[in-house]
């Protein structure tokens, strides 16, 4: 299981966000360059359609592969009331022939993206990860070197934390509390519930840049 | 005569050794053809003469220390029991085989178990079955409790993944597990060899479907460098088993690992491929 919120930020304010996160975190950022391939089952395979994502970490000296399955979100009146999405997620590291394996099983490439940016990891009531990435599409198959932004000038911010059925309420509270630190720069909400950019972002960014960081 | 082992260890050999012992350990009758790391127990394992051990002096290693365990993995050959035409495998044969190991001073250690599962695609149109892998096997190995292996034998694909891949396959619902088999039995230490003798049984039944034996040679990870010593061991093993006049014999089929993208350096992926090959042989035996 994981808890997740998302938001967007203008690229011009990313440096300020990085200063803020660095101040909160205390350890250097982790660079991200992830080739994400979204595979869907062919028309005849499975009683219902299925989807799986393959993540290739291009930042490593030797690219590493992860298989990721994102399940349905928690439903019900309780889920409607919380501002954080709670969903099932299962991941598995895999050998580098995993794409060929899934193709042979009957999966097809639906789309691929290149996510470039950075991440910070926090321990604040939960194991929280904040990723800031530009999402890029490839004009030619697997051509990561020629990727172009899907939304030029805008980057995606995700705040995630692993959870279980026993502790997800605490994790939700930890994420909600953490998001308040970022409120001047961006608004974070459930995925697919976008609030756009925050009006105070420019002023907050200017403040961060002129102060040289926040402790 | 003094020879240098792979890890720099040296063993002094005296003439007049027991013929069987020399052939098993060294690959020829009187000296190494390929240097090996040999323990005193290995040298003495086939010899009932206690005096022999006093005739071998093991000198301290020299030169580079051996590679760390993380860099090397002992190689293994997986043998399976091939019944004679018109006969089937039974528990008496398994018992006799185990006794054979013990008769050559194999020290019984713990139990071992690996699991193999057949997966089948879930198709909306069954007439299109030929478009999908005919044999998708999932394997969980004793030696890698946090890993899971998928083998698509027809396409020569072996995938290594975390064991959570099973949960992902369960959630995808595109392939479902149908039949699972246990490979289980006892493990024996025999000098530099580790042997595992096991029965093959369905997970919810005690019907014996086959007998397998893992022969693991601990000092070497190179398939090529180990071939002679493994062949020598298997020859001696076959000779030992043949004295029991059992209705069958052990077979070893070496897969073309290169077709699976695997190198000379042995890994658990090699083991997974061997299990897939043996499974195919066991199925063929039952059909015949």
From TrEMBL, chain A:
Keywords: Activator, Nucleus, Transcription, Transcription regulation
Pfam family, one: Med18
Stored InterPro entries: Mediator_Med18 (IPR019095)
GO MF annotation terms: transcription coregulator activity
Keyword Methyltransferase: no
Presence of keyword Chloroplast: no
GO biological process: regulation of transcription by RNA polymerase II
Domain of life: Eukaryota
Compartments reported by the entry: Nucleus
GO CC term, one of those recorded: mediator complex
Role of this protein: Component of the Mediator complex, a coactivator involved in the regulated transcription of nearly all RNA polymerase II-dependent genes. Mediator functions as a bridge to convey information from gene-specific regulatory proteins to the basal RNA polymerase II transcription machinery. Mediator is recruited to promoters by direct interactions with regulatory proteins and serves as a scaffold for the assembly of a functional preinitiation complex with RNA polymerase II and the general transcription factors.
Complexes and interactors: Component of the Mediator complex.
PANTHER family reported for this sequence: MEDIATOR OF RNA POLYMERASE II TRANSCRIPTION SUBUNIT 18, MEDIATOR OF RNA POLYMERASE II TRANSCRIPTION, SUBUNIT 18
Family the UniProt entry places it in: Belongs to the Mediator complex subunit 18 family.
Name of the protein: Mediator of RNA polymerase II transcription subunit 18
UniProtKB/TrEMBL annotation, chain B:
InterPro entries for this protein: Mediator_Med20
Native organism taxonomy: Eukaryota, Viridiplantae, Streptophyta, Embryophyta, Tracheophyta
Signal peptide: none
GO BP terms: regulation of transcription by RNA polymerase II
Any Gene Ontology CC annotation: mediator complex
Subunit structure: Component of the Mediator complex.
Protein purpose: Component of the Mediator complex, a coactivator involved in the regulated transcription of nearly all RNA polymerase II-dependent genes. Mediator functions as a bridge to convey information from gene-specific regulatory proteins to the basal RNA polymerase II transcription machinery. Mediator is recruited to promoters by direct interactions with regulatory proteins and serves as a scaffold for the assembly of a functional preinitiation complex with RNA polymerase II and the general transcription factors.
Keyword Cytoplasm: no
GO molecular function: transcription coregulator activity
Keywords: Activator, Nucleus, Transcription, Transcription regulation
Residues that span the membrane, as ranges: none
Places the protein is found: Nucleus
Protein's recorded name: Mediator of RNA polymerase II transcription subunit 20
PANTHER family: MEDIATOR OF RNA POLYMERASE II TRANSCRIPTION SUBUNIT 20, UBIQUITIN SPECIFIC PROTEASE HOMOLOG 49
Protein family membership: Belongs to the Mediator complex subunit 20 family.
Pfam families: Med20
Species the sequence originates in: Nelumbo nucifera
């Amino acid at each position: 299981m994981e808890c997740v919120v998302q938001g967007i930020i203008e690229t011009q304010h990313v440096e300020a966000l990085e200063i803020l996160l660095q101040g909160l975190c205390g350890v250097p950022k982790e660079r991200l360059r992830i080739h994400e391939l979204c595979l869907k089952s062919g028309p005849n395979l499975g009683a219902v359609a299925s989807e799986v994502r393959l993540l290739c970490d291009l930042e490593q000296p030797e690219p590493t592969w992860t298989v990721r399955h994102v399940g349905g979100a928690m439903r019900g009146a309780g889920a409607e009331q919380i501002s954080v999405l709670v969903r099932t997620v299962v991941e598995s590291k895999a050998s580098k022939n995993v794409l060929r394996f899934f193709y042979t099983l009957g999966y097809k490439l639906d789309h691929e993206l290149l996510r470039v940016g950075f991440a910070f990891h926090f321990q604040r009531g939960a194991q929280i990860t904040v990723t800031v990435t530009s999402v890029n599409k490839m004009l030619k198959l697997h051509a990561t070197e020629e990727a172009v932004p899907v939304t030029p000038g805008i980057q995606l911010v995700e705040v995630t934390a692993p959870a279980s059925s026993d502790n997800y309420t605490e994790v939700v509270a930890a994420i909600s509390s953490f998001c308040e630190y970022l409120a001047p720069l961006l608004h974070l909400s459930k995925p697919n519930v976008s609030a756009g950019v925050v009006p105070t972002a420019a002023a907050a960014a200017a403040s961060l840049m002129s102060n040289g960081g926040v402790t | 005569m003094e020879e240098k082992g792979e890890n720099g260890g040296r063993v002094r050999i005296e003439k007049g050794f027991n013929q069987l012992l020399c052939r098993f350990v060294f690959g020829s009758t009187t000296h190494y053809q390929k240097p090996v790391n040999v323990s005193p127990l290995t040298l003495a394992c086939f010899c009932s003469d206690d005096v022999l051990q006093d005739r071998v002096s093991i000198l301290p290693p020299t030169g580079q220390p051996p590679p760390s365990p993380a860099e090397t993995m002992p190689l293994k050959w997986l043998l399976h029991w091939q019944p004679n035409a018109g006969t089937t495998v039974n528990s008496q044969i398994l018992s006799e085989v185990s006794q054979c190991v013990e008769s050559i001073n194999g020290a019984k250690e713990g139990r071992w178990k690996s699991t193999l599962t057949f997966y089948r695609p879930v198709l909306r149109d069954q007439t299109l079955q030929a478009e999908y892998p005919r044999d998708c096997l999932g394997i969980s190995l004793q030696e890698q409790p946090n890993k899971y292996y998928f083998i698509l034998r027809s396409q020569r694909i072996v995938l290594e993944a975390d064991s959570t891949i099973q949960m992902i396959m369960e959630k995808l619902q595109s392939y479902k597990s149908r039949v699972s088999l246990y490979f289980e039995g006892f493990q024996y230490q025999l000098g530099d060899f580790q042997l595992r003798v096991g029965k093959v049984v369905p997970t919810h039944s005690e019907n014996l479907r086959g007998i397998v034996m893992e022969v693991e040679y601990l000092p070497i990870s190179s398939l090529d460098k180990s071939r002679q010593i493994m062949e020598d061991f298997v020859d001696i093993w076959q000779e030992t088993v043949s004295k029991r006049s059992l209705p069958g014999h052990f077979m070893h089929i070496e897969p073309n690992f290169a077709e699976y993208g695997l190198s000379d350096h042995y890994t658990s992926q090699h083991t997974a491929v061997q299990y897939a090959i043996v499974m195919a042989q066991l199925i063929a035996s039952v059909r015949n």
